[in-house]
Specification:
Number of helices: 5
Distance between the termini: 51 Å
Strand order of the largest sheet: 1-2
Order of helices and strands: HEHEHHH
Helix content: 40-55%
Radius of gyration: 16 Å
Shape: globular
Length: about 120
């Protein structure tokens, strides 16, 4: 898990300020991750899903594409990339109708022209 997180977030580490995880053993190397990314690392309290609201919401959105009865071993890299693209370019009310990509990368949304 440590290497996967570093591989994915390394290219944008200047934009990573904190990471929040649950208390699973897969985050045993959290100190190394935090140090490598120069970021804070927080843990949610056990059984406190409201402390990870964005994560829980995103899980629900992902389930629209990959229902619980789907065998995850059949999901292709192309499908994962497609879902990531759709979710990261979907406007969110909590982001003032900007997309996560627009907020994360500081992209100004296009302005509608008056007719």
């Amino acid at each position: 898990m440590r290497q996967a997180i570093l591989d994915l977030l390394g290219p944008v580490e200047d934009r990573v300020h904190t990471l929040t995880a649950d208390n699973g053993k897969e985050f045993a190397h959290h100190e190394a991750i935090a140090q490598a990314l120069s970021a804070g690392f927080c843990f949610a309290h056990p059984y406190a899903s409201w402390e990870r609201g964005l994560n829980e919401n995103t899980n629900g959105l992902v389930r629209l594409y990959f229902p619980k009865d789907r065998d995850f071993s059949t999901i292709t890299d192309e499908e994962v990339q497609m879902v990531m693209n759709r979710l990261n370019n979907r406007p969110r009310k909590c982001l003032c109708m900007k997309t996560p990509n627009q907020v994360f990368f500081g992209i100004k949304p296009p302005v509608a022209l008056a007719s």
